[in-house]
Specification:
Length: 248
Amino acid sequence: MDRDQRQSYILKLLKEKQRVYISELSDALKVSDDTLRRDLSYLDNEGLLTKVHGGAVAKSPIPIDFSHRLNCDIDQKQGLAAKVIPLFAENDVILVDGGTSNLQVIKQLPDIALTIYTNSFPIVQELLSKPKVEVVFLGGELLRDSQVTIGLTVYRALQFLRPDWLLLGICSVHPQIGLTVPSREESYVKQLMIERSAKTIVMADNHKLNTAHQFVISALNDINYLVVEDNMKEEIEKNWKNRSYSLL
């Protein structure tokens, strides 16, 4: 079996199982572990999977660029957002990360007395229509693809916050690997957001589940609520072991 055939087999198996192991590939393909590591590295560089210790996992098919994600799966995102709204109470302090799912929460948010900190330009723009909400923008270096600010300025500002809630934006959720994103700098900011917040909420439509990107934010048990589509709840409750977070 030549390289192209091996790699096609790997991608087909990954589509079926969401994760592949070098050991099982070696048995099936009758090639060395080193050959398979090279195959996985090549496919990772091509953006077709995420190489992890001992194998690889599927990569989320969702576009990285915010403007491309804005009109993807709107109904699903609106449904997830509707589950989040009842968690908030008047006078809460909420830290809102970037992301199109988080934007749907802000669209549905009632105009009540809240304080919202955010590093997201689209979130700030949407909050202009809610005069009772106090808005604090965390300025910094612009990450254009995500339309959020990152860097030392944001990092320093976060060190002085202790919000009641964090709405965290993520690209991928994996039961073993955890929460991941494709940007190293963005992962640093998100890690500190979780550390500083009393409770963390993550919304994940079906495309984000069982996938991973290069940079880990945290383990799943570092969050408080995972909000998913209803048709995935039974599978998660059955197969995702040792959960300490609430499933909505």
